[in-house]
From TrEMBL:
Domain of life: Bacteria
The organism's taxonomic lineage, starting at the top: Bacteria, Bacillati, Actinomycetota, Actinomycetes, Kitasatosporales
Protein name (database record): Uncharacterized protein
C-alpha cells in the first residue's frame, strides 16, 4: 500500500524565492538564469519547465528523485544564501510555482515556474548596480552575468537592467537594490516604457562605456606616436 501525499488545489500559484545567476547566450540573443546547486548546469528561461538533471525520463518532480525546480517559502531565507562568498553575485528571484509540486517544510520542488522579479544586489565595489556584466565564467554557450555599476562595466560584455528584462521577456521585472530615484537603481517590467531613473541609469552606463573607449583610443594613439618616434 502506497502512502499518497495530500493533494492541494490552490486558487492561485504559490509564490517562492530562490537565488540564481543571470546568464546571456553567446550570441547575445537570449537571457535567462542558472541555478546555484544541482541544476546549475541547465540554464532556464523566465517561463520554463523543469527537466531531470540525471537524464531520466520521468516527469519532475518525481518522488523518488530530487529533480525539478526548487525554491523556499521565505524571502529572508533566500536572501541569507547570498551571504556566502560563492553566491554574492547571485540575484534574488521571486517566482510563481506552476504545475505539479511537492511541498516541504522550507519550500517547494516543482515542475514549472515563472520568474516574476529579479533583484540585483550591489556591484562588487559596493555601488548600486545599473547593469549585469560578464562575471568571468559561464556554462557551455552561456556567459554568467553579475551586478555592476557604470564605472566597473568598462569594456565587458554587459546588459543594462532594462535591457536584460526586455531580452528575457515574459513580463520579467528587474530591480536594483538601494531604492528608487537615484543612479544605480532601476526597475523595469519587460514591455513597459522606461522611467526617468531607468534612463539615468542607461545614460550612466553609456557614458562609462564611452569613457573606456576614449581611454583605449588615447592609449593606442600614444603607442602609435611612440613607435613613430623610434622609427
Amino acid at each position: 500500500m502506497r502512502l499518497r501525499l495530500p493533494a492541494e488545489r490552490p486558487t492561485e500559484p504559490p509564490t517562492g524565492y530562490k537565488i540564481a545567476h543571470p546568464v546571456l547566450s553567446r550570441d547575445g540573443t537570449l537571457a535567462g538564469f542558472t541555478g546555484v546547486s544541482l541544476g546549475g548546469a541547465l540554464p532556464y528561461a523566465v517561463l520554463d519547465d523543469a527537466s531531470c538533471v540525471y537524464g531520466r525520463r520521468h516527469r519532475p518532480p518525481a518522488r523518488r528523485c530530487d529533480c525539478g525546480f526548487h525554491c523556499v517559502h521565505d524571502r529572508a531565507a533566500a536572501e541569507d544564501l547570498r551571504c556566502t562568498a560563492e553566491h554574492r553575485a547571485a540575484v534574488l528571484l521571486e517566482v510563481s510555482v506552476l504545475g505539479a509540486y511537492i511541498r516541504f517544510e522550507r519550500g517547494f520542488r516543482y515542475a514549472r515556474q515563472r520568474v516574476r522579479t529579479a533583484t540585483a544586489g550591489p556591484c562588487g565595489c559596493g555601488a548600486g548596480a545599473v547593469a549585469l556584466a560578464d562575471a568571468g565564467w559561464g556554462r557551455l554557450g552561456w556567459r554568467a552575468l553579475a551586478p555592476a555599476c557604470a564605472p566597473c562595466v568598462r569594456g565587458r560584455t554587459s546588459l543594462s537592467l532594462t535591457g536584460f528584462a526586455r531580452l528575457a521577456g515574459q513580463g520579467l521585472r528587474v530591480v536594483a537594490e538601494g531604492g528608487t530615484g537615484r543612479p544605480g537603481s532601476a526597475e523595469l517590467e519587460s514591455g513597459a516604457g522606461p522611467s526617468v531613473p531607468e534612463l539615468v541609469a542607461e545614460a550612466a552606463l553609456l557614458q562609462a562605456r564611452l569613457d573606456w573607449f576614449q581611454s583605449q583610443l588615447a592609449r593606442l594613439g600614444e603607442r602609435g606616436a611612440g613607435d613613430g618616434a623610434q622609427g
